[in-house]
Structure formats: C-alpha cells, structure tokens
Amino acid sequence: MKRKFTAFRFLSIMKLERCRRQIDLIDAEIVALLAAREGLSREIGRVKAAAGLPIVDAKRESEVQHTVNGLSEQSKGIASIYREILEQSRRVQAEVSDEKLAAAMR
C-alpha cells in the first residue's frame, strides 16, 4: 500500500531534515570540544608523569561528576556519556605516562 503524500507529511519531513541539520552542527561542535579536551588530558598526563602523580585523581573526578550531574540533572544519559569521557581521559593520560616511561628507559 502506497502512502499518500500529504502537505502534513511534507512539512514533517522538512522539519525532520531541519532538526537533523541542527544535530549535525551540534555534533561538529561536540567533536571539536572533545578533541580539545583530549589534548588537555594529554598535557595533564605529561604533567602527572613528570611529577610522579597517579593517573586517577578520585577527588577531582568526583568533583567533575558532581558538576556534570548538576548541569544535566534531567538526563541520566548525559552523566553516562560523561563517565565514558572521563574514562577516555584516563586512557590518554596513561598512554602519555607509558610513553614518558619508555622514553626514560631508552
């Protein structure tokens, strides 16, 4: 059965496309911000490695989680995504720390 192409359906499709274009713009901003955050995490990893500090700073991570939870109190999904962002920051810092250790052993 073929659906009838109505004005309402046409307007709905147009609205859908407009929303998708907005999401694409937001996604580009998110990716740029995440890349900048990762660069800063890499720098933090270098500083921690040079100072002999541990990768995980539970107090700092708790503060960040608390802030994010306050900013996103209506969405548990955002808090979940942010936990993954923090995990990625730890991975990046560990990579830098491992690189620093390998360089020191040469």
Q: Helices, strands, pairings?
A:
Elements: H1 7-51, H2 58-71, H3 76-105
Helix pairs in contact: 1-3, 2-3
Short description:
The protein is mainly α and 106 residues long.
Please provide a written account of the structure.
- The chain has one domain: Chorismate mutase (Chorismate Mutase Domain, subunit A, Up-down Bundle).
- With 106 residues, the protein is mostly helical.
- The protein is elongated.
- The protein starts with 6 loop residues before the first helix and ends with a helix.
- The mean pLDDT is 89.
- The chain is built from 3 helices and no strands.
- The longest helix has 45 residues, at 7-51.
What name goes with the CATH superfamily?
Answer: Chorismate mutase
Proper CATH architecture: Up-down Bundle
Stretches where pLDDT falls below 50 for ≥5 residues?
none
Separation, N- and C-terminal Cα atoms: 71 Å
How many separate domains make up the residues?
1
Radius of gyration: 21 Å
Secondary structural class: mainly alpha
Could you tell me the CATH topology label: Chorismate Mutase Domain, subunit A
Order of helices and strands: HHH
> What's the shape?
elongated
Average pLDDT over all residues: 89
Number of continuous helical runs: 3
Report the β-strand fraction as a percent range. Answer: under 5%
Q: What's the total number of strands?
A: 0
Q: What is the CATH class designation?
A: Mainly Alpha
Helix content: over 70%
List keywords for this structure.
106 residues; mainly alpha; Chorismate Mutase Domain, subunit A; 3 helices
